Amino acid sequence: MRIIQIMQDSVESFINVLESYRGRDKVIRTLCYGSQLVGGVLAGKSSQSLLGKSLLLFSAQLSDCRTTLRLFDDLSMLAYSTSYGLGASEEDALVRWMSILSNVADQLYYPCEHIAWAADAELIKTKSDRWWVLSTGLWGISLILSILRSIRSIQILKRKAQMCQRSASAESREEVFSQKAVLRRQIRGEVFSILSSLADLSNAIHWMPPGFLWAGRFPPWLVGLMGTTSSLIGLLQMSSGDQGACS
């Protein structure tokens, strides 16, 4: 009975994830890169592998699906950027400005990708290559800013942990222990964010024009590995939720 209950809870949790747009996108993303990883490995071992080719085609279809669904993300991104504004609630100026610049890059990313998508679909008469490069470049800039922001956030959280320790008294040890546990979870979350962004950044560089660092040099399985790593971290972070901190 215990096993059945666990299975039921797992199925319900998975259904809840699929019912939200962000959750469904993360699942599709994981399947997309996971298929590319396995398909790339199989195709690398044997160019005649039908399963490998099928998985790579399946991955490409899921990628096109996500691109199409992102046609409707502009307003939600604008709403987020507007609500964040100039980051008046942020304690640190560096975190605030990196967040603002990241929001700008993310906001510009969507229309560039839409134009590239429309050009490939022959809805408009323009070359899609430059728009794909521009959207990928904006994605890369956003990822770099995210990495720098997380590094800065870790520094701030470590400083808070030290302050909590110094201000501790015999009566408040339990409370301080709880606060430090929250801060450790936040630091761990920022470390995961860095790893996720680094994995995505490696793919973003791969998709840049040839001659730029390692652009075009990744085999399909490596692209799938980086993307799967990032996607699994995203699912993990979504299931863990946000954590608070001591002030």
Protein architecture, described:
It is found in: Peroxisome membrane. The chain has 8 helices and no strands. With 247 residues, the chain is an all-alpha fold. Helix content is 79%, strand content 0%.
Structural class: mainly alpha
Which descriptor suits the 3D outline?
globular
| Strand residues, percent | under 5%
Main beta sheet strand tally, sense and closure: none
Low-confidence stretches: 243-247
Radius of gyration: 21 Å
How much helical structure, as a percent, in the residues?
A: over 70%
Q: Round the mean pLDDT to the nearest integer and report it.
A: 88
Question: Total number of β-strand segments?
Answer: 0
Instruction: Give the N-to-C terminal Cα separation.
Output: 44 Å
Number of H/I helices? 8
Helices and strands in order:
Blueprint: H1 2-19, H2 21-45, H3 50-69, H4 74-84, H5 93-120, H6 129-166, H7 173-206, H8 220-240
What's this entry about, in short?
With 247 residues, the chain is an all-alpha fold. The chain contains eight helices and no strands.
